Give the backbone structure.
Amino acid sequence: MSTAFARRLNLAKDAQEPRETDHPVARFRPRELMRLMAIRHGRVLPDDETGARFRDRVLDTFALLGSKGRRRAENFLVLRCRWMTAVQRADAIEVAFELRRFWSAEALGNDLDVTQAEHERARLRTFRVAGMTDEAMQARKKAADSARKKAKRDAARLHSKPKLSRSAQRLEAILKLLTKPGDWVCIKALSAELKRRKVIHFVTLTGATLTSAVHDAVRLGLETGQLEKRLVDGPKFKVAEIARSRR
């Protein structure tokens, strides 16, 4: 049987197998193994037992990808296992794709003897640190969640904004209405507009209570320099008008 015919036969056989490309292991583990290999060995695996073991685990992962995985396996062996002959490469691929071994996160971490430093540096998610059991993983995850929640609470306390007074909240609502400096409006018209729009900090107020609340908010705005005030002639008396400060 010719090499080309055998390759076409293998691709056809792989295409009949279930495609597992949506599985997180099949999608992400190859890249994680490449990062780990770069940390340990650089661009090429060594011609020894350690290199052979790492090569086999990579091929086991590619075997989950069907025909696409076979092409990637061939490229991987040519580029990363330069000490292998063409026959050795073909035999290694056939063994992996025939067995289609699936390694659990715990088993692969133990087999490759992954250290904590390697796990963090290579950003491994589909296999664990050697010796890390399910119980240890749960305890570690729980501790990490607790630490993250504590850091979030601490940050909230350190950077929390002071709670605004009722008048300050109402002043903010008024400033949202007075969008442009120099747009003057009398307090009576402002109160009516706040009521018409049902602004949250004024919606329950009516009559004199509403007027008093608006005056308190305006007074705070004048004290803090966020509002300006002027008196203009009215039909009988002077009328107070306010506007957003130009400063």
About this structure: Strands lie at 185-186, 227-233, 238-244. Residues 4 and 10 are 10 Å apart (CA to CA).
